[in-house]
Amino acid sequence: MIQKINNNGAPKYLVIFLLIVSIFVAGFYVGKIDLFKNVELNPEKYQITGDKLTERNNVDVGLLWEVWSEIEQEYIDTKNIDGQDLLYGAVDGLVKGLDDQYTNFLTPEETKEYLSGNKREFEGIGTTLAQEGEFVVIESPIDGSPAQQAGLKPKDVILRVNEEDMQGKSVIEVAKNIRGEANSKVMITYYRADNNETKDVEIIRQKIDLKNIEVIDLENGIKILKIYQFTEADVETFNREWDSNISQLIQDNPKGLIVDLRNNPGGFVDAVRYSVGEFLPKGAVVFQEEDKSGRKTQYKVNRDGKLLDIPMVIIVNEGSASSSEIFAGAMQDNDRAEVVGTKTVGKGVEQKLINLSDGSMLQIVFQKWLTSNGRHINEEDPITPDHAADDTEAQDQKAIDLLLSK
C-alpha cells in the first residue's frame, strides 16, 4: 500500500484515509423521516439517531430505511438484533458496491487489528494479504518469513484457516484468524490456480521483526541492496536508515549493485522518492500522480544522489507491489537500470486512511500513480522485467551476469 505522508511526517489525511460521514452521506440534508412509524422499539436495546436522508444524488436511499424497518417488524429473532451491527453491515455493503479491492470499511475492532498489523514487530506468519472477490489471497510473503518457508506464494487463495471457511470474509477477518502467538500452529488451506491445486499447510507462527534495508556482500565487488519495505515509524526515520546503509555501501566502493525488491509490499511514497533520488539526477521524474479529475502531478528528484554512476540491476517478482513498483518503473523509464524477474503485482493506486467518528476507518483509493513516462501500472499491465527469470536462483544469476557484462 502506498501511504501518503505530509512534510512533517504525520499522515497527510489523518491516518491515511477516511471520509467523514453521517450515516452514509456528508453534508447533504434532505429531510428526516419517521423511520419506524408503526414499530415499537425497545429503547434499552438501541435507538437510531442522526439525520436519515431520503435522497442522495437522485438515488432514493429511503430503501435502506424501508428494509431496516421491515427487519424490525418481521425478522424472527428481533430480540437479538444489534443496531450497530446492522449499521456496520450496511456501510460495508455500501463500500463493497464500489467493487474495488483496495477500498474497504473497517469497524473499530478491525481498525485496531489493522493498525497492530502495521507495527514493526508482530506475531504471525509474515505476509500481506489482498482482497479478490469473495476470497482473500496472499499478496507479498515477507522474505524469510514462516509464510514463505511454508511455500505460500502471491495469488494463493486462502480457502480455510484452521478448518474455518474464509469465503466472504474481509482481509482483516482473515488476518485475525491467521495471526497468533509465536510458536503456535495455524493450518491454512489454499488454492493455487497455476497448477489447479488445493493444499493444506501447517505453519508455526513466529515473532516477525520487519526489516527495511539490508546490504549483502557478494563476490566480484558486487553488493546487494535488499529493500524489504519502504516503511518505518515515519518517513524521516526511514530516510535516516537509508542514509546509514548507503554510507556503509559507499565505504566498500562496490563495482556493481543489485537492488532486490522481491516481495516488497510498498510503503511511504515519500520514502521511495527519497530512495530513487540516490540513483537519478536532480530534476529527473520519479513518478506521477493522477487524481479523479485527470489532473497530473509530477514528482521529481529533489536532492543530490551519491550513487548516480554505479552500474545496477533491479530484481522484482510477483510479490513486488506499490512503492517497489514505483522504484522499478523509475529505473526503467529513466534508462538507469535493467529489471530482472517476473511481472509484479500491478498496484498502481494510492489510498487514504480516513478515521471515522466512532473509531472505524475507511480505506479508500483516491488517486492512481503513473511511472515517469506516464504508464499506469495495474494488474493487466504491471512492471514487466527486461529479462524474465522465474525462480530465485535464476534471477540472482541473471542479475550478476548483467553486472559482470558491464
TrEMBL record:
Which GO molecular function, any one, fits this protein according to its record? serine-type peptidase activity
Any transmembrane segments, and where?
A: 12-31
SMART domains per the record? Answer: PDZ (SM00228), TSPc (SM00245)
Q: Which InterPro entries match?
A: ClpP/crotonase-like_dom_sf (IPR029045), PDZ (IPR001478), PDZ_6 (IPR041489), PDZ_sf (IPR036034), Peptidase_S41A (IPR004447), Tail-specific_protease (IPR005151)
Asked if the record carries the keyword Phosphoprotein, the reply is no
PDZ domain location:
114-193
Sorted keywords for this record are: Hydrolase, Membrane, Protease, Serine protease, Transmembrane, Transmembrane helix
Q: Which cellular component appears as one GO term in the record?
A: outer membrane-bounded periplasmic space
Q: Tell me which Gene Ontology terms the entry assigns under biological process.
A: proteolysis; signal transduction
Q: Which Pfam families match?
A: PDZ_6, Peptidase_S41
Q: Does the keyword GTP-binding apply?
A: no
State the family it belongs to. Belongs to the peptidase S41A family.
The entry's protein name is: S41 family peptidase
Species assigned in the record: Candidatus Dojkabacteria bacterium
Lineage of the organism? Bacteria, Candidatus Dojkabacteria
